[in-house]
Amino acid sequence: VLIAGLLLAVVVASASWLLFSLRLRPGKEILLGIKRNEFHVVYQPLLEAASGRVYGLEALLRWTHPVTGPIPPDAFINYAESQNMIVPLTRHLFRLVAQDAQLLRCYLPPGTIMGLNIAPGHLSAGSFHQDVNEWIAAMPPAHFDYVFEITKRTMVAGKNVAAVFDWLHQQNITIAIDDFGTGHSALIYLEKFNFDYLKIDRGFVQSIGMETVTSPVLDAVLTLARKLNLKTVAEGVETEEQAAWLIKRGVSHMQGYLFSRPLPPEQLISYLQQQADA
Ligand code: C2E
Ligand code: CA
Ligand code: CA
Ligand code: CA
């Protein structure tokens, strides 16, 4: 009877543990990943088109899951957004970037841009202002300039977006519209919201040199950006040919594998030192 009772207890305990961990699953994996320090940040240099100078970095999250290994950012960001986990995840990003910045600032001049991807859902979250304030307080004082890169995907959902943009500008944070040229009806947002940078999606850049009809569209986007007084950043620049074409059309800023992949801090520092020696 004693042994049977013990067995029963073990079965009940493991069953409830299983139920508990199953219930824990949706989204909580992200919280666990944060707790277990499974996330890290890589930084991709942003270059001034004319001079080739590194003027900034884009911070990109990486997640190495202990069981499945590296998870593609598009996948876990979408997952985090769908599970209402994007706010804790972005807070964690803020923490990691603030830590890395203590080292990185020694290798980058004051005024270097630190660009972060901010999910539109976070903008309308109640904690957004406080999250940003805490991040700024944790960053090295007066060294980096901040750019928040925002995709237009779900921007329409938040009605107070214009007010949030105003507030960000008051904090000296500038705003980039990310992935411009993907999806639909992006033009309306350019009129509606006060952006500083327009990031031309990789898809556009990759069509350069392929003699397709997309070059006139890219031309029109660049004209538009000039008229709206937006700085332009071409992303996904992989070839000299693309870079030359973009410079000729007046694109002011670039990033892509041609210059550097996103790198962890130590490798980024080597890259910066190589640039300085060249
Ligand atoms: P994104 O914001 O458009 O980031 C640029 C993506 O292009 C990065 O992919 C980068 O590694 C990749 N890339 C840069 N240069 C080249 C190139 O020359 N060729 C090619 N083929 N790719 C290039 P990654 O790191 O996989 O990130 C994918 C997306 O996940 C990002 O797209 C962004 O939307 C999202 N993401 C990444 N980190 C974060 C984050 O911390 N927060 C949020 N909200 N989203 C993030
Ligand atoms: Ca981005
Ligand atoms: Ca982008
Ligand atoms: Ca993208």
TrEMBL record:
Transmembrane segments: 1-20
Originating organism: Mixta hanseatica
Topological category with respect to the lipid bilayer: Multi-pass membrane protein
Organism phylogeny: Bacteria, Pseudomonadati, Pseudomonadota, Gammaproteobacteria, Enterobacterales
Broad class of enzyme this protein falls into: hydrolase
Catalytic reaction(s) noted: 3',3'-c-di-GMP + H2O = 5'-phosphoguanylyl(3'->5')guanosine + H(+)
Enzyme Commission numbers on file: 3.1.4.52
Domain EAL: start-end pairs: 23-276
UniProt keyword terms in alphabetical order: c-di-GMP, Cell membrane, Hydrolase, Membrane, Transmembrane, Transmembrane helix
Entry protein name: cyclic-guanylate-specific phosphodiesterase
One function term, GO molecular function aspect: cyclic-guanylate-specific phosphodiesterase activity
Localization: Cell membrane
Residues of the full protein shown: 244 to 521 of 522
